[in-house]
């Protein structure tokens, strides 16, 4: 009895090893077929076999439709082997899903889920969730970049005003130097001996001139100090406002992601996915209506109404 049991165990082990070896070969063959189809299309080698186009070659020689052939080629072009565990049995459907996302997204998905054990539906749900998150994150990043660009423009304008003020100061300083030169010449003329006595009003004129110059200098200094203060205050306020706006956007999307992740853990995934899509659609509609109303343009309101009406009609038809 023990000998029979041992023999069955050895048979099971050998059969298992054979199955795993053939599965590994099948996966390797799948990769090689994908790259082979790509080489056949790119090099136009199908012409050597008597076909004028790649689609006819696939249908008649390989038995693939044009759509399936290009799906295999998409796998060869877009899926990176480093994002897939070597020898894993993933299958064509999951490989094609991976080919629709970027290399960085492939790596993120492969680190998050077990590609070999997860189902096609589960993998598609994870990819859709990742795309939605990246799209929202990209929109938030674009909004933040636009805000920073606006801030830079405002800072540039303030710097321009400051430069213009500095040029005004330079002009005043130049005038001051000219006045000093004229005063020196006036002084030299007054020190020269004259035969005819004249009433000398130069001292009073000098005093008045100096008072005007000092008043202009004080006003210019005060103006520069005020502009510097306003420039610093405006820049701090703009930076604080932009930082607060970016932080609010980040918290909003983190909260959405957290909610989506918590809901995805519930047993009925289809219902939860519907809830997530419904929340996102509701949020998009609110934003659309708010935009149309805030701009108070008839065309925006009409277009928004047409979208909502067409959506309702599509639901009734389905």
Q: What is the CA-atom radius of gyration, in angstroms?
A: 39 Å
Global outline = elongated
Number of strands: 0
Quaternary structure annotation: single chain
- From N to C, what is the helix and strand string? HHHHHHHHH
Give the CA-CA distance, first to last residue.
64 Å
Please state the structural category.
Answer: mainly alpha
Mind summarizing the main beta sheet?
A: none
- Point out poorly predicted stretches: 195-199
Helical fraction equals over 70%
Mean pLDDT score, rounded? 77
Work out the strand percent: under 5%
**Total count of helical runs of at least 4 residues:** 9
Short descriptors:
single chain, 318 residues, mainly alpha, 83% helix
Question: What's the SSE blueprint?
Answer:
Blueprint lengths: L1 H41 L11 H9 L3 H13 L13 H8 L3 H10 L7 H72 L10 H63 L4 H27 L2 H20 L1
Helix pairs in contact: 1-3, 3-4, 4-6, 6-7, 8-9
What does this entry show, briefly?
By secondary structure, this protein is an all-alpha fold. It has helices at 2-42, 54-62, 66-78, 92-99, 103-112, 120-191, 202-264, 269-295, 298-317. It is 83% helix and 0% strand.
Give a verbal description of the structure.
There is one protein chain. The chain has 318 residues and is mostly helical. 83% of the residues lie in helices and 0% in strands. It has 9 helices and no strands. The chain has helices spanning 2-42, 54-62, 66-78, 92-99, 103-112, 120-191, 202-264, 269-295, 298-317. It is elongated, with a radius of gyration of 39 Å.
């Amino acid at each position: 009895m023990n000998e029979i049991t041992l023999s069955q165990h050895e048979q099971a082990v050998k059969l298992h090893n054979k199955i795993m070896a053939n599965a590994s070969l099948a996966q390797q063959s799948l990769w090689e077929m994908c790259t082979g189809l790509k080489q056949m299309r790119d090099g136009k080698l199908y012409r050597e076999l008597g076909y004028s186009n790649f689609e006819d070659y696939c249908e008649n020689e390989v038995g693939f439709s044009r759509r399936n052939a290009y799906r295999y080629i998409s796998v060869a072009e877009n899926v990176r082997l480093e994002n897939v565990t070597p020898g894993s049995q993933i299958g064509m459907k999951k490989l094609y899903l991976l080919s629709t996302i970027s290399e960085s997204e492939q790596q993120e998905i492969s680190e998050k889920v077990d590609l070999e054990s997860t189902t096609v539906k589960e993998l598609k749900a994870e990819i859709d969730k990742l795309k939605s998150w990246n799209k929202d994150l990209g929109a938030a990043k674009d909004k933040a970049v636009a805000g920073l660009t606006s801030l830079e423009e405002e800072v540039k304008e303030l710097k321009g005003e400051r430069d213009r003020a500095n040029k005004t100061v330079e002009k005043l300083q130049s005038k001051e130097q000219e006045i000093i030169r004229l005063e020196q010449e006036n002084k030299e003329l007054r020190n020269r001996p004259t035969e005819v006595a004249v009433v000398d009003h130069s001292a009073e004129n000098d005093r008045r001139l100096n008072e005007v110059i000092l008043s202009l200098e004080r006003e210019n200094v005060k103006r520069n100090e005020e502009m510097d203060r306003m420039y610093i205050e405006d820049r701090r306020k703009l930076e604080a406002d932009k930082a607060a706006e970016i932080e609010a956007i980040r918290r909003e999307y983190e909260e959405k992601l957290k909610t989506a992740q918590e809901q995805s853990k519930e047993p009925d995934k289809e219902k939860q996915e519907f809830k997530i899509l419904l929340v996102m659609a509701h949020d998009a509609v609110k934003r659309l209506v708010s935009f149309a109303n805030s701009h108070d343009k008839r065309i925006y309101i009409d277009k928004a109404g047409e979208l909502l009406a067409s959506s309702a009609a599509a639901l009734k038809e389905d």
